[in-house]
Amino acid sequence: MSTGKLQAARGTQDVLPAQAPERLALERVARRVLEGAGYERIETPTFEATDLFSRGVGTSTDIVQKEMFTFRDRGDRSLTLRPEGTAPVMRAYLEHGMHKLPQPVKLWYWESFFRDERMQAGRYKQFWQVGAEAIGASGPSVDAELITLLHAILSEVGVGDLKVRLGSLGTAQTRAAYRERLVAYLRTHEERLSAEVRERIDLNPLRAFDADDAGTREVMAGAPLLLDELDAGDAEHFAAVRARLDAADVPYVIDPTLVRGLDYYTRTVFEVESGALAAAQAAVGGGGRYDGLAEQLGGPATPGIGWAAGIERILIAAEPSLHPVAICDLYVAGEGLTAFALAAQARKAGLAVQQELAGRSAKGALKQAARLRATCVALVDETAGTIELRDTESGEQTVATDAAQVIARALKGRHPG
């Protein structure tokens, strides 16, 4: 840290006032779309017992092996800043007896997460995600619904050139049999694989599909594909998900090499990319089904599916139309008791009110009101006991003698007719 200066930790960023409106606009869209479909807001703690992620996410994942911020508390318990949202939501589902509620339990969140990974466009060591989870239903309709909702949110906020990649990992039994075949194939071509992939052949062979190394990619081009080995039930489920996406006019491409970075996924997996982002960081969000997660956490067998999307990534890829101007219904020019009381009463009436607090002259206050695009301006004369009200759109000027008249006029400007 340079002398005399305080700086944010490397890998984090401040959200400045000028950036807040676009985030709020995105949150409003997400809330309307998700809550309109029956998803309810949930918030989980910033840190959890480390065991939740080692058991739920998987010890073979990069998240657990390399990326978690883990520390010990005063009771010598191992705690971790949450690196993802699904395991905490499932923990809350089990802990609070949500299985007793009508199923599926549909939840959504808007929270910060933490991973010690290399910084890239729209990804920091502390980052924000919007996510949705549906727990307690195993049918293909809930899979398709969640994909459709994510696509709807991204489309509405103007994320350009969307591409949904869709795949299936089958059930745990299907994947276990396929894993043996893949390990054997990788061992046969081991000398052509990168050192990192060779080290993880037995630990997590499916991650070889994500490798950037040219030699590894050549080997993986001829690797057996899990989609070719789905059993009848897996294949039927995958076909039913596709049929529902077709019915909802959600375009997608089938990607037999799609591998999500978490061990708990089963059957449907998906990722949504945007052509507005650089190719290497094109993913905006993704998720999949995790029918074995509850059991991994010590609960009963419970199906589930969900997704998460990066707030920072979405905002980079979204159209400028997402960035609204803050609304100011009434600007009160004056700092005396009358002006202060007027501002307070107008807020109680439901108006968005800003008051002059910097000692500007009437002319300066009018300029500030113009910057804020205030609908009405009230110039308060404390001595005369009058209030000059100006409609900034029509230019009409009237004189009011009390707050009620000002509020009525401002409300009319906000709600014409």
Q: What do you see in this structure?
A:
With 417 residues, this protein is of the alpha+beta class. It is built from 14 helices and 16 strands. The chain has helices at residues 20-36, 50-56, 62-67, 86-95, 140-156, 172-188, 195-199, 214-220, 232-247, 293-296, 311-317, 337-348, 362-372, 403-414, and strands at residues 40-41, 47-49, 70-72, 78-81, 105-114, 126-135, 162-168, 253-254, 266-274, 283-289, 304-310, 330-333, 353-355, 376-381, 386-391, 397-400. An 8-stranded mixed beta sheet has the order 1-5-6-11-10-9-7-8, sandwiched between helices. Strands 13-12-14-15-16 form a 5-stranded mixed beta sheet, sandwiched between helices. Helix 1 packs antiparallel against helix 5 and helix 5 packs parallel to helix 9. The longest helix has 17 residues, at 20-36. 38% of the residues are buried. The mean pLDDT is 88. Belongs to the class-II aminoacyl-tRNA synthetase family. GO terms for molecular function: histidine-tRNA ligase activity.
Helix amount: 25-40%
Mean of pLDDT: 88
Radius of gyration: 27 Å
Estimated share of beta-strand residues: 15-25%
- Uncertain residue segments: none
Span from first to last CA? 57 Å
Q: How do the helices and strands follow one another from N- to C-terminus?
A: HEEHHEEHEEHEHHHHEEEHEHEHEHEEEH
Write out key terms for the chains shown.
5-stranded mixed beta sheet, 8-stranded mixed beta sheet, single chain, Anticodon-bd_dom_sf, HisRS/HisZ, alpha+beta, histidine-tRNA ligase activity, 417 residues
